[in-house]
Structures are given as C-alpha cells and as structure tokens.
Amino acid sequence: MAGRHSTLNIQHSAFNISLSSLSTPAFLVDRNIVEQNCLRMRARALSSGVAFRPHVKTHKTIEIGQMQHGGAAGPITVSTMAEAEFFADSGFGDITYAVPIAPEKLPRAAALAARIERLNILIDSELALRAVEEFHAANGTVFDVFLKVDCGYHRAGVDPNDPDSARLAMAIANSPAVHFQGLLTHAGHSYNASGIEEIRRIAAEEIESLTRFRAILGIDDLTRSIGSTPTLATADTFADTDEIRPGNYVFFDAFQSTLGSCTRDEVAVSVLATVVGSYPERGQAIIDAGALALSKDTSPDHLDPNFGFGLVCDVNLNPLPARLIALSQEHGKLATSVPLPVGTRLRVVPNHSCLTAAMYDRYHVIDGGNIVDEWRPVRGW
Amino acid sequence: MAGRHSTLNIQHSAFNISLSSLSTPAFLVDRNIVEQNCLRMRARALSSGVAFRPHVKTHKTIEIGQMQHGGAAGPITVSTMAEAEFFADSGFGDITYAVPIAPEKLPRAAALAARIERLNILIDSELALRAVEEFHAANGTVFDVFLKVDCGYHRAGVDPNDPDSARLAMAIANSPAVHFQGLLTHAGHSYNASGIEEIRRIAAEEIESLTRFRAILGIDDLTRSIGSTPTLATADTFADTDEIRPGNYVFFDAFQSTLGSCTRDEVAVSVLATVVGSYPERGQAIIDAGALALSKDTSPDHLDPNFGFGLVCDVNLNPLPARLIALSQEHGKLATSVPLPVGTRLRVVPNHSCLTAAMYDRYHVIDGGNIVDEWRPVRGW
C-alpha cells in the first residue's frame, strides 16, 4: 500500500510531481490543512479532559487515522465492519462500531473483538439485545455495548424520555451477556441549523440528553459519548461529557464552511477537474467531474438554495463566478459568467467531503501545489 | 478476477449459496433479467438494421458487455478512459469514448487507439480540434472523431442550428489530423419527460437533429449515432439513424419504471439491506444501506415527488408501504406504516442503477434466490 509510512520519509517521496500533470478527475487532500484540523480538535479534547475517539469514516485512511491521534493508533469510531477490520490490521485496537449492529454481523464482530483490545458495538432495541444474548449463549462472546440515544436527530437511538428506554438500559446493565460501556448520541440535526447560536443550543441538548438519561439510570460509570462536527467544531471546550467522536473535521467541506463549522481556509479537500465543453452562448460549461467524481449531496439548502453541487474555484482555490447546476454520471454542468475555455483546470470544493472521498480509490496528497503522496482508503462493507 | 467466464460453467460455480447468508449491504443483479434486457434491445437493433454500440457505463463489467452482444466483444460506448482500457484488455476492440475529450487525455487515448481496432473520441469545440491537431503534429496520431451535437438536452454538444457548428464540422471534415466518423447526440432530457408521448416526441427530435445537420453539411457517410435509454427503450423500431447507444437498459431502475421506459419486472438490480433500528412509535426504521450503498439520486420528482431514495421491497421484491426518506453515509431512514423489526431483510430497487452500481466493488449475481456468481466492475477514471 503506497505511502503508508510516508510522513517519515516525505523528502524522498516519488510523488513529488506538479498538480498540472495530474489526470482528472482527482481527489486532492492538502496535508498541512488536515494536520492543522487534526491538531486543533485533539488539543481541545485533551485540554477539556475528555476521551478522544475520532470517527474515521470521512477519510478511511490509516495515515489520517494516525494523524488524528498525533501519530498513534488511538481509539477510533467506524461506520462499517470493513473499516473496523482495516484499522485493526494496522494496530488500532480500540474501536467503536457506531451504527446499530445487524444481528447477521455478530459473528464477524465477534471474530474482530477476539483479536483486538476492545470492540464496542451499538444497540438500541430489545431485539438486538436478544440477538446478542443468543449469540453469547451459543458462542460465549461478551460484547462491549453502547446504547444509542436519540438527542433530537430522530435517525437511530432510543428516546431518553421514554420509560421503555430506561427499561432497555437496565436490561443491558443486568445482562450477563454484555458489558454495558455507555451511552452514545449524535446530533446530526446540527447540520440543519441556521447559525452558530442554533448549533450551540443543539450541542447543549446533545450533552444534556445523555447526562439526564444517565442520572435516571443511576449508573455513574457509563461513558457519555457525543459527536457531530458542527456541535464539536464550534465549541470552545467540552464539559459535562466523557468522550467526543468528531469525524468530518479532518477535511471539512463546502457544507461545513457555509454552516459556520469552519472557515473556507480550513477545508482540506477539493476535486481537480478539466473543462471539456464550453458554451459561452448559453453561459455554460462542462467539466469531467460528474456524480461519480463529486457525489450528489447538496449544500445547506436552507442557507443558500442556489449554491450548487460544490464550490467552483480556479486551481489556486479562488472562487469563480460559476455554479455547478447539474451532475450526470461523468459530466458536471456549470452556469458561468466568465469564459471557461476547453482545457481549463478547476478545483471544486465538495459539499460533503465524506461522500466525495468515498468515490476514490486513492487520494492525491498535496503540499504547496505539488503531489507529495498517495493515500488509499478502505472501501465497501 | 472471479467469475469472468462463469456463464460457461455455472453449474459448477462456488457461489451457489443462499441470499439469506449474504452480508449487507450487497448489490444484487438478476442474471436472467439482465439477459432478457440485453436480448430484447439487441434484437430490435438488428431487426432495424442499425449498428449497435451499447454503453457499458451502467454495469462496467466484462460479463454484461459480452451479454449485450450475445457473447461477443462487439462495439461499445464508454464514459471513462478507465472503462475503455479495461474493456480493451478483454478483447473489445471498437470503442467510442462518449464524453468530450480533455486535451490532457490525448496521450492516453493515443496509446489505447494504437492497440485496438478503433477508438472514437468526441469533440465539440474548435479548441479541442486544435488540441487534437497539435497532438497529431507532434505525434502523428490520426484520431477517429465524432462531433457531439446538442439535440435539446443542453449539456454538451454544438447547436445544430448555429452556422458556427457547421463551420466546426467542416473544419473537422477538412482536417488531415483526424478521420471524421460521424455525429453523436444524447437526448438526456427524455429523463424529464412526463410520459411516453413526450418521450417519443424527444426521440423524434433526437433523430431529426442529426439527419438535418448532416444534410446541411452534405457529408452523407457520417454516422448518425443516437442514444438514451428512455428514447430507445420505448421505440418499436429505429429508423432514419445509423447507430444506437443505450446503456441503462441492461439494469433499468426505479426511475425508468416510473418514467415508463420499462416495467417493474424488467428492473434487474436491487440492494439487499438489513433493518438495524426500528422505531414504531414514530413510524420509522433504519437500514444499513445509506448514501454509500444506494447513491443519492432521486426518483423522477416531476412524476412522483414523494417517491424517496429507492423503492422499498421485501426480499421477494414485493413493494412495502415504506419510503426511504433520508440517506446519511451508512444509514437509510424509512418512514413505514408496517412494523419492520431489527434483523428484517429488505431489498431496495435503486432510483438510478448506474450510480448505485458504481458504489460496489463486486456485484452478487442471483438466479432464483441463490447467489450464482460474482462480477467485478472497473472503477475510477
């Protein structure tokens, strides 16, 4: 795997070529910005005295996983079993699989749990607990379990105000089949906020929901684990919580900068593209980056309904008066008020870096306009 | 590459396992339906006496590329240079790269053209013609060229009613640097049609635009190449054209069946998923297939604005009273009026099979509820 240990020997890298020689579309990662983003979040976690378990689903690479922990293979959060196994293979031994587990995945999870220090799995239903207990009865595995709590996002998780939720929690606490490690929530609704004030209000609810629910349960040693990049990136410090799980902050994206989670200079990624069609008579152009090169998430429509499918910039990341108005499989359609002749190179800052990064088998790592490395993410499930 | 020649020895396949043992999410391809879809389109092309150059971008596999031609490695259309090279490596020697070429890709295209019988490239601007001519002057390569014509979709292509377009065509015709092979158009706006009648009107324009433009040029031996799955799948026969390039028809999808390009029984693909969260108190559930397992294209919003991110079915493909109302990276959120307990297996018919298929490193090929093979698509650019 190319570039795995590249941070050690970058002066001798074979990748020291110019951006202009790269074939398009290509996914560019600015190493210095990723490093700064990683340093800043980790420093705030350390100074707040909370455990730091960053999510790796945004980047899916060993290189950035280590960067998130200042070079170490520290505790991480994953969104697929493939990620869990990939990072375990590189020495990451403390992993939370933060999607409610499907019963069919228990054998695979047990095999992984047996070879690392800790695999936390997530459940939020009596049926899932029963599946874990049946697996325990048949195989002896004692899983480390977090209970997923819904702090208002209404995707997964139990309602902390529902007495049934406390009953499920107590059933987990009393089950000999599991170790009840903690409560986990994700304030995904912070992505729909209209500004920093609303994000901070959601952040307070995210924290408060777990503290309140834990008090109801009366189990003081349950870890309270929170995490969404908007709520964490806009906080000065982390209080009244035990663990944070930010993910998108390593790259950020056009969505996060529009929302106010970061500045535009803190966005670490872009898609390099080439203009392949130019139609000045209708104020349009076509680039060779379509839905498969950019993914199709929109910007925060509630803040800027005309943003388009990414921020269109020149090769130096200066925004252009052009909007990506449509994506088909391999074509990106621009409405532009400046001429963009065929052959022009552009960079598009993606709306949602997690989904865009996942379209690529390799990332081109840049430093000062040169390709200095190549990182390969894990794929699939 | 597993399963490459599997159609020859399927009785002895190692993949003869049950669907219920498959880990989710998984991309399922019904072999019999793909074969029927391939047979039907090819038969109509042959009986109409038009050249058949199907697109392979929907499936990106050698297996289906051969199926499209009744087992042979016939003429194909591709959307990336990676597809062109992948199919060339398996004996496909007559390829049209149907995206306007970026000047930076000419060396790679020339290298491919030198090792196969025919590589047609696409241009639609004087700048691109100049780049091809400069490449010819430096390297001697004589490219086979199609001129992209805009028949109303307004993505790429020259306006056939603009005198500048005829001037560009004549410049191509008179250039010693290229062989002018033909005119190519794509009626992508047929996807926005409101029914069969409108699709047929667009199909007529698609054909007519090339015939009229060729008459203006007075170059009778230019191939007129058309292609969009809605306009081709709803035609009884193909007249007044020379070549068709359908692609999506091999799989079809929920979009095409809603639009009327196919019946629901003709859709060959689905994503197998597992319910991982169940919230009957709010009429919702979560599956382990999110944006990375399904892609985020919507249905034809103009026909059914509440369709959601795919058609939700049980494991036997019977539609359920459930809608996929949101996708995040690895979660699909369902609004459902029936209980869907944790562990329930579902199949989601994707809205846009081209984008969904491209999310997978392998396809699970099914026949009567069993996995009978595994096909691997080419990825990237």
Could you state the order of secondary-structure elements of chain A as H and E? Answer: EEHEHEHEHEHEHEHEHEHEEHEEEEHEE
Query: How does the helix and strand content of chain A classify structurally?
Result: alpha/beta
Overall CATH class of the largest domain in chain A: Alpha Beta
Domains of chain A (count): 2
Number of strands of chain A: 18
Mean pLDDT of chain A: 94
Approximately what portion of the residues of chain A adopt beta-strand conformation?
15-25%
Instruction: Quickly give the CATH architecture of the largest domain in chain A.
Output: Alpha-Beta Barrel
Any overview of this molecule?
2 copies of one chain form a homodimer. The first copy, chain A, is an alpha/beta fold and 381 residues long. Chain A has 2 domains: 6-27 and 262-375, Lyase, Ornithine Decarboxylase, Chain A, domain 1 (Beta Barrel), CATH 2.40.37.20; 31-253, Alanine racemase (TIM Barrel, Alpha-Beta Barrel). Chain A is 29% helix and 24% strand. Chain A has 11 helices and 18 strands. Chain A has helices spanning 31-48, 62-68, 81-89, 106-113, 126-139, 163-174, 196-217, 229-233, 254-259, 291-294, 353-357; strands at 17-18, 26-30, 51-52, 76-78, 94-100, 118-123, 143-148, 178-184, 223-226, 243-244, 269-279, 284-287, 311-314, 319-327, 332-336, 345-349, 363-367, 370-375. In chain A, β4 (76-78), α3 and β5 form a beta-alpha-beta unit. Chain A is elongated and about 70 Å long. The model of chain A is unreliable at 1-14 (pLDDT under 50). At the A-B interface, α5, β11 and α10 of A face α5, β11 and α10 of B.
